[in-house]
Design goal:
By secondary structure, the protein is of the alpha/beta class. It has three domains: 12-223, HAD superfamily/HAD-like (Rossmann fold, 3-Layer(aba) Sandwich), CATH 3.40.50.1000; 285-489 and 513-518, no CATH class; 665-823, no CATH class. A hairpin with a 3-residue loop joins β19 and β20. The radius of gyration is 33 Å and the shape is globular. It starts with 11 loop residues before the first strand and ends with a helix.
């Protein structure tokens, strides 16, 4: 009978192929030989050293240093490199007693056992081997003895797994590693010829090359592709920046085994995005929700009704359904818009909302305050330009202060509230004493804040909000919790995550318009979604990948005893996957999200792109790393994906820690360039500084003094060749950061003297007197808050710069630029 063709080359085997590995062997094998760690036993964490943070008597550095010293001593004294764990602890605890060292070793082995599990596909292979009459042996390069390794497998994976193993061979007892000849001893001890053994392990040199050098057929277990390995390294880096756990196992990644099996089977990048990112996140969310539901029932009694709040609650709902839904679950459509509308029934709520929201586009605020379209047209009017918006805001504020208007809005809000209550009743019909558990992505739980009391009074029940991420900025005192919240992490981290959360919203949602009202029977009235059909199709495939992960995670890939840190592992694994995707997305992931749009969902039809790389490139060249400080993009890390790792990590560090750096902190060097101002009747000179920004570009900021008509830059005095990227006008206030820092600049034209253009933007200065002359833009004359920004890149600098400014007292505008650069 012809054997099936392997899915991978003969020397490599993928994790999901392990159960059928014997089909890859020639006839006549008698022994299945397996590596132990990362072949049979896998860990919850990224690297073995991540276990050492849980050791009670040693730091990570002490434990690692002790092993290095033990191996050095063994090499010096016995001319071999393999050591036992006892030798390591002799180095680690030189002044301890034998009993104290034994207890410390036992603590490490307990930590190891609690963090390990048997890899299901490998165990299935072992079962098949035993059924075929083969012997199963473990050959491991380890500092553990045979007794210790057997006990570890028994504690980590159970009696059945350890019972499948006939013999153990370890380097610590043999004194040599696999690559040094341990496998040769194995053949001699087992009394078999090389071709009668099949060896499998994850280390190419020790398991594959050493085996084949002896004539032993071997397979190299490739746990992860290069892309997956990089992604997991990035997750590990994010774990470190998030803040390692100091007294327990760190960098927990419980999704590694599932991804190892499932990712090679992913059909395309779209499905892979759901599998690799959303899968671990929303599986952890669902497992946490189930525990929270039980806790709520134990505390309050009655039935806990799961209310998945569409639209963002769609993915949590389908994950929950795929894993077996609880008795009472429902989809409810309680958007921020309808929850706010239903809350405007009292003078306090009415006044509080409009007084804090004035400044928003007046037509949008009026719509949220339940004005009719006719009323908006009559009172607010057009609000497309800045002047119209300002005028409309004054008119709207005046109208909202009227007692009659408050009565009208209160009546409309009560009607909305009654319809919202009917909507909930039509979905779950709770009884007194029950709990309504609102399930949403988060992030302030603002919808719950507006309807909590309404629902509690209407149904005489408890209301609880359970969110993926919670960063409640107002201490409402309501029952709110998040899988990721301030019980476990600091506010700066949560703020950083919320800054990029739009991409998760768009991947978790469904193809429905946002609800704006309900019928008297509680049926949703929605606005048109406005999202392209292609985006919905992509999102559906991403979500299918997430569901596949959840099902695989429940399928028993891990064979283990009770894990003491499972709940924490799920949470931290989700946070690692989430933060990595948010700040260090891979190009293949962003390709899936090309052309995605985000809808604002506040009674507005506004749609914005999730990311725009060209916009970020412009901002970085104008402002350098300071651009990140004030940018409020939907998904800024995606816009920086093509930048080097230093830039991307800078963004992560700035956002994660809320560093609050000023513009003047981002650059310590500059180029002095003469500048001059030309007015109607006089002129003046000074020197301005060109500060480095990004990719070799410099930004020159020249103030616009009163009465100036033209501003000149003496580029010829410092450059022989340079690239001129842009000339624009901007507000000095943009140097303070905030949203203004991200505004697109008004591009300006220029006149050149003494410059020869060789290609678009590439200029040669024919002499030291060459200059660029910029006409002060219309409306900028006399405006002390404006500046001209010139972005250029030096190509060849003049060897002897000619900088001879006429000493002048800085104008008010010049002072303002200098002050903002230092104070921003």
């Amino acid at each position: 009978m012809q054997k099936p063709k392997p899915a991978t080359p003969n020397i490599a085997i993928l994790p999901q192929e392990m159960p059928n590995a014997l089909e890859r062997a020639d006839d006549g094998i008698k022994v299945l030989s397996l590596d132990c760690f990362d072949t049979l036993l896998w860990r919850d964490c990224h690297a073995p050293s991540d276990l050492f943070t849980a050791l009670p008597q040693l730091s990570v550095g002490q434990r690692m240093s002790s092993e290095q010293n033990a191996r050095k001593a063994e090499t010096t004294l016995k001319k071999r490199n393999e050591v036992a764990i006892e030798a390591i602890y002799e180095q680690a605890l030189p002044n301890a007693t034998g009993v104290e060292r034994a207890n410390a070793i036992e603590a490490e082995l307990d930590t190891e056992a609690a963090s390990c599990f048997a890899f299901g596909p490998t165990v299935e292979l072992m079962r098949k081997a035993k059924a075929a009459g083969l012997k199963v042996i473990i050959v491991s390069d380890t500092y553990l003895s045979v007794r210790q390794l057997r006990k570890l497998i028994e504690k980590a994976a159970g009696d059945e797994v350890v019972g499948l193993i006939d013999r153990f061979f370890v380097s610590s007892e043999a004194g040599i590693s696999k690559s040094q000849g341990l496998l040769q001893k194995v053949l001699k001890t087992c009394k078999v010829r090389p071709q009668e053994v099949l060896h499998i392990g994850d280390n190419r040199k020790a398991d594959l090359e050493a085996s084949r050098a002896l004539g032993v057929p071997a397979l190299h277990l490739v746990q992860f592709s290069d892309t997956a390995s990089q992604r997991l390294r990035y997750e590990r880096a994010c774990h470190q920046l998030i803040g390692d756990v100091r007294e327990d196992v760190r960098a927990l990644m419980p999704h590694r085994a599932v991804l190892a099996c499932e990712e090679p089977k992913a059909t395309g990048q779209t499905s892979a995005l759901g599998l690799n990112v959303l899968g671990p996140v929303f599986y952890a969310f669902d497992q946490w929700l189930r525990k929270e539901s039980k806790a709520l029932q134990n505390e309050h009694g009655g039935t806990v009704h799961w209310l998945f709040m569409l639209r963002d609650g769609h993915l949590p709902h389908i994950i929950h359904e795929a894993l077996g839904a609880e008795d009472s679950t429902a989809l409810v459509e309680i958007s921020r818009f309808v929850s706010i509308a239903a809350s405007l029934t009292t003078r306090e709520a009415y006044t509080q909302y409009y007084s804090t929201e004035l400044g928003r586009k007046p037509s949008t605020l009026a719509r949220q305050m339940l004005f009719t379209e006719e009323e908006i047209t009559h009172i607010v009017g057009e609000d497309k330009t800045q002047e119209q918006m300002l005028e409309g805001s004054y008119k709207l504020a005046a109208e909202l202060k009227k007692g009659q208007r408050q009565k009208i809005i209160s009546r409309r809000a009560k009607e909305r509230a009654e319809r919202l209550i009917e909507h909930v009743r039509s979905r779950v019909n709770p009884t007194a004493g029950d709990t309504l558990m609102l399930v949403d992505l988060g992030y302030n739980g603002s919808a719950q804040s507006h309807v909590d009391q309404l629902l509690s009074d209407a149904f005489n029940c408890h209301v609880a909000g359970r969110y993926l991420i919670l960063r409640e900025l107002t201490a409402t005192g309501l029952d709110k919790k998040g899988l990721i919240d301030q019980r476990h992490y600091d506010l700066e981290l949560i703020e950083a995550l919320c800054g990029n959360v739009a991409v998760i919203e768009q991947l978790a949602t469904c193809e429905l318009g946002s609800v704006v009202d309900f019928t008297p029977k509680g049926e949703p009235i929605r606005e048109e979604t406005g999202i392209k059909g292609g985006q919905s199709d992509v999102r559906n495939r991403v979500q299918a990948g997430a569901v596949r992960y959840a099902k695989a995670a429940e399928a028993g890939i891990e064979i283990r005893g009770k894990s003491p840190h499972r709940n924490r592992a799920l949470r931290e694994g989700a946070l690692g996957a989430l933060s990595r995707f948010m700040f260090l997305p891979h190009a293949s992931e962003l390709k899936v999200l090309t052309n995605f749009e985000h809808d604002v969902n506040m009674g507005s039809e506004r749609k914005v792109p999730l990311f725009d790389a060209a916009h970020a490139k412009e901002g970085m060249r104008r402002r350098g790393l300071f651009y990140m400080q004030g940018s409020a993009r939907m998904f800024l890390p995606a816009e920086l994906e093509n930048e080097d790792i230093h830039t991307r990590l800078s963004l992560l560090v700035q956002k994660r820690f809320g560093l609050g750096l000023r513009y003047s902190d981002t650059s310590q060097t500059s180029i002095a360039i003469p500048a001059f101002f030309v007015g109607a009747s006089d002129s003046a000179q000074t020197v301005v500084q060109a500060h480095p920004t990004h990719e070799g570009y410099y930004s020159v900021r020249v103030p616009v003094p009163k009465d100036a008509l033209n501003i000149g830059l003496g580029v010829g005095s410092v450059f022989e060749w340079f690239e001129l990227k842009s000339i624009s006008a901007a507000s000095v206030d943009t140097l303070r950061g905030g949203l203004a820092n991200d505004e697109r600049a008004d591009e300006l034209g220029a006149q050149f003297d003494g410059l020869k253009v060789h290609a678009p933007g590439i200029h040669e200065c024919t002499g030291s007197a060459a200059f660029v002359l910029v006409k002060v833009p219309q409306g900028g004359k006399g405006d002390a808050s404006k500046m001209i920004e010139i972005v250029l890149r030096p190509l060849i600098r003049r060897r002897s710069p000619v900088i001879e400014p006429v000493p002048v007292v800085p104008t008010p505008s010049a002072r303002s630029v200098q002050q903002e650069e230092h104070a921003a």
